[in-house]
Amino acid sequence: MGARGPARRPGTDLLTPRALNRALLERQMLLRRTDLPVVAAVERVLGLNAQDPNLPYLALWSRLERFAIKDLTAAIEDRSLVRSTMMRATQHLLSVPDFRLVRPALEPLLRRVQRNVFGRRTAGVDLDALVAEARELLGGRVLTRPQLGRLLAGQRPGADPTALGWTVQYLPDFDATLLAHADRTRMMTDQIRRRVCVGDAVAAVVLVDGTVAATWTRSRTGETAVLTVRPFFPLSISDRDAVEAEAGRLLAFTDPDASECRVRLFRES
């Protein structure tokens, strides 16, 4: 509801920032893990951000009581779920019915975004043919964006490889739960947001009592997996224990074959 909306009726209450936070987390299945099948969970939140192919796996692990990697992989391979550029011109994983519902409505916007950003640099390029060629080039192999752009430009003398690569390929990491609102303070303060969102990058974060309290990174060296948590402010002993326990569970999910899993929980950073 906008600030200039209709007058508040007598006896009604305005939603507090905490109430907005809890409504968002409930809608996103982040207040508690839920017992749902993978496709139903993806539909419940109307798609999951998927700039990096691993992001939906982590997102569903955070939301579902009984989730295994094979559950999502199977849904992608049998085409129950589709990955495509969708809301905010970012990659999402959606069910096929939701994709068919939403994508046609977004198509004019997505084409306008491409023209606004790369229009001059891709003038005269048949975008449908470009996408078809990129799909063929990516079949059965992985290419970086610069590699893909150069291959696409090879068939189009004088074309801009960077513009071609960006026109058809994955964006930096983005988390709709954190950023898809005009008022982002329901999840984090402006000061913390400036540390979470640096340039195009959005750090992986830890929520404590529903708000951003830390960032985390994961690394693997040989048989040892390490998850490092860097809080933005001092955490209570109980919160530190809860964060450390959840980090251990995440490593067990991401690195089940590691002979050693370590959690490094720093003090305030």
Automatic annotation (TrEMBL):
Pfam families the UniProt entry points to: AlkZ-like
Domain of life where this protein originates: Bacteria
InterPro entries from the UniProt entry: AlkZ-like
Protein name listed in UniProt: Winged helix DNA-binding domain-containing protein
